[in-house]
Design brief:
The structure holds three protein chains of three kinds. Chain A folds into two domains: about 230 residues, 3-Layer(aba) Sandwich (Rossmann fold); about 120 residues, Nucleic acid-binding proteins (OB fold (Dihydrolipoamide Acetyltransferase, E2P), Beta Barrel), CATH 2.40.50.140. In chain A, about 20% of the residues lie in helices and about 35% in strands. Chain A contains eight helices and 20 strands. In chain A, helix 2 packs parallel to helix 4 and helix 3 crosses helix 4. In chain B, strands 1-2 form a two-stranded antiparallel sheet. The two termini of chain B are about 45 Å apart. In chain B, about 45% of the residues are buried. Chain C is mostly helical. Chain C starts with 5 loop residues before the first helix and ends with a helix. The chains are: A alpha+beta, B mainly alpha, C mainly alpha. Chains in contact: A-B, A-C, B-C. At the A-C interface, strand 6, helix 2, helix 4 and helix 5 of A face helix 7, helix 8 and helix 11 of C.
Chain lengths: ~375, ~300, ~290
Amino acid sequence: MATSPRATQQKFEPWTDPDAKSYVRIEKVTKKFGDFIAVDDVSLHIYKKEIFCLLGASGCGKTTLLRMLAGFERPTSGKIFIDDVDMTAIPPYERPVNMMFQSYAIFPHMTVEQNVAFGLKQEGLAKTEIEGRVNDMLQLVKLGQFAKRKPHQLSGGQRQRVALARSLVKKPKLLLLDEPLAALDKKLREHTQFELINIQETLGVTFIVVTHDQEEAMTLSTRIGLMNHGEIVQVGTPSEMYEYPNSRFVSEFIGSVNTFEGKLIEDEPSYVRIECADLEAPIFVNHGVSSAPGATIWAAIRPEKITVSREKPADADNWASAVVRDIAYMGDMSIYLLKLDSGKIVRVTQPNVYRHADDRVTWDERVYLHWHSSSPVVVTK
Amino acid sequence: MKRWLTRWTPSGRSLVTSVPYLWLLLFFLVPFVIVLKISFSASQIAMPPYQPLFHWASEKVLQIQLNLGNFAFLVEDNLYIRAYLNSIFVAAVSTLLCLLIGYPIAYSMARSSPSTRNILLLLVTLPFFTSFLLRVYAWIGILKNNGLLNNTLISLGVIDQPIQMLQTDFAVYVGIVYSYLPFMILPLYANLEKMDLTLLEAAADLGCKPWQGFLKITLPLSKHGVIAGCLLVFIPAVGEFVIPSLLGDPGMLMIGKVLWTEFFNNRDWPVASAVAIALLMFLVIPIMYLDRAQNAEPAEGARK
Amino acid sequence: MMHGRPWFRMISLALGFAFLYIPVASLVFYSFNKSRLVTVWGGFSTKWYGELLHNTQILNAAWLSLKVATLSATLAVVLGTLAGMVLARFGPFKGRTLLSGLTTAPLVMPEVITGLSLLLLFVTMEQLIGWPAGRGMTTIVISHVTLTMAYVTVIVQSRLTQLDDSLEEAAMDLGARPFKVFFLITLPIIFPALMSGWLLAFTLSLDDLVITSFVAGPGSSTLPMVIFSKVRLGVSPDINALATILVTIVSIGVTIAGFTMTRQQKIRERDSQMALAANQQMIDSLRKG
């Protein structure tokens, strides 16, 4: 799971600052199409210079929400504020917001230059200024030599950069991106991800990105808003979403996870012990959990946090015995599917630290699984 | 910057919508109302040759004279009923013939290679752009007693005497099928061309023979094209005038001719209107069906 | 990747096109027949073309038809494009079904009905408001526009439905108001469809007989009306000559259109190939780097 290089640079966390003013305020926005509720009472605060990703499966409402930000749909109820101005009823051609469409929507009858200049012409700027800004932008997206080309003479990646240039040249307050990397080749996708981040940092524009690809969201964003059935399920940084999911849905959507259903047998402020039907030993978690007494809870453990070994662990908790059902060798790591005595399949990934395979655990072996007491995430829904 | 420019947009739209709408209301819909009105009127020697429908009786009371005589006339004189029935029959048979001839052509076009397809499409639409009237006229030259067809048959020794082909029902069928064939081929072709050919491959993979594949997959999926083509041929063919006039027997009863005769020869505008209304009543249902079919979901089984 | 038996396809196509073209060919062939008896070959001659060019009745009718056709085609394109825009882009609104019906019905309505109803309308209007005064070019043009705009609407509507509306949304997003979007973006892109709409409307107008007969007045005879009155009486070789001229013009026009389209297609394909190759190069270099 790749993490953004920015995470290692100076901390950019305006959402933790109680005095920071949000740049985009979505207040209790709902959108209904007839009886169908596409967006259900969504409220979000997005800060300047963020790259905020709306993540979710098809039909979860993320695109509808994006279109409402752009002005192509009107909320059934609720308000949208951009830089403190109520934009709810303003048509798209009057908003300081620009959108990069999934299909790029490059005007086929105009050259690259004319495409990029289009938005500036609508603003009524002087010809020389338009030319200057267009040239600078084309240099930034590395399309300078293609200025006079027509769209059908460009590759997919080049067309995307035209779409980007066309939106950014207007210096919008907000740039909306609809599945920006979906149409690209895998290799090109990685390359473009980092280019996008660089361009955003250079220009300081606030990005809101819609995507269904959680890897994309993890790489690009400062924060992710995960949506399901029109609602925002959780908002957080990529590592918060991954390591501290607030529900089974979140833990299962982002990355893979093993979920164990169980009951609290010990509930203390500094630790809990959970009894699971599938496991011989209880799960010991080294922090407290707030949950209703007697309620069913789930412990979610990520595959990379579990170790596989032939020796039985010394711990009284946090281990299980299983048989190796399947191994997928991925080169850098191996994925193990292990069958517990209860029948449940557990997924474990381990890096292949040593080159030679002789010593590695193999099919049908009986092995022991072990994990640290800080690894399980306890969710109540 | 709180300008209610959204107020602009609806009226801009209303303007754009109203221009064609008003035109069509005035020049297409209103005329039918007038035809309806005049069909209730009675003929008189005047210009225009029908009695006014409304007239002011005393004390500003508007009196409407509804003369149902014309419609009664239509029903009594069984000439009209026979003409309606014959027209429907001829149109139906022609539609069927167009389908039988046009389907193989459309199918073969759709299954050709893309470059050939475009040329074929061009070739099919080319006659359409030459005059309809002239092409019907061409058949006169072909079907005459000393026309092309008879001369060829005689010179080949197939027959001794020329066969009477012109001024027969046969000639009318040939004329209608010939003129309306592109109207059958084009929608069929459009439908067949969009069909996902991998469906047939899947069927073959599951054990279907080619002709079974055609019957069970291609044919049902081309339903929309067939319906559109049939309606595009049938509806106008019922009221066809030119072809029966030029190619058919003078006594052949087609409702289009009847209407023309009533109007131009008998100068009986009210009866002509009644004929038109009766015809319209019949055609309204297929026309609405066509409109619905055009707006229906795009073809199932189309390529993604 | 061809399907089925090619011989079936070839025979259907051969027979089908023979059926379509033999009558046209016969018209052309006999226009060069010296003999007046059109179908009895009397030797090669172009005398009918000469006669045609001196026939003022036909020439006047042809000129009127051309004027009417040009005017009505242009009006039909304007109205039909508006209607097509409304039906394709404006979403549902009150009265949409009626509009949709009004634009489909003229396509199939038997011309005797349309012709009669239009004439009665003109007569009534003249009684009520004094316009149109008498039947002539005005009434013919109005009738032709009403008929042919339906075809233009169908063409434009289908082209717009194919067109990715995110292009128009992108233009609005970049600051252009809806009217501007139409003229700067939509119109240039759908222009070929408008052209074919114009040509279709032109052809239909030029060729129309039945409706025109109802709504034309004395002194305004269009070409089809003259042709019809002549051929009712029998075959006439100068009509063959006229037909040949028309067929030639149309064929040349359609062939040119066909070639232009094919050439444009080839250029696009070549450009797309270039772009794809460039893309592949870039991916390869990333793989290595």
